[in-house]
Write a sequence for this structure.
């Protein structure tokens, strides 16, 4: 993803999850995916999708069962 997209996505997440130390980092060698970190811990990925001329982003976060205890 381009640096301006990363900045916009990071700003969106910071507005949505107020007070969280959140960073969005581009993935090397992939133009359509970025990683999301909270307090330097990886929490998920953002995928870029263009369908019929419309651009959207998809956030995917996996939660392990041990994290629920």
């Amino acid at each position: 993803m381009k640096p301006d997209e990363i900045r916009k996505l990071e700003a969106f997440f910071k507005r949505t999850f107020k007070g969280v130390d959140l960073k969005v980092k581009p993935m090397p060698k992939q133009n359509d995916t970025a990683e999301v970190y909270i307090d330097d811990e990886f929490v998920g990925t953002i995928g870029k999708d263009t369908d019929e001329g419309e651009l959207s982003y998809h956030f995917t976060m996996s939660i392990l069962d041990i994290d629920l205890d």
In short: The chain has one helix and four strands. The chain has a mean pLDDT of 93. The beta strands are 22-26, 33-38, 41-51, 54-60.
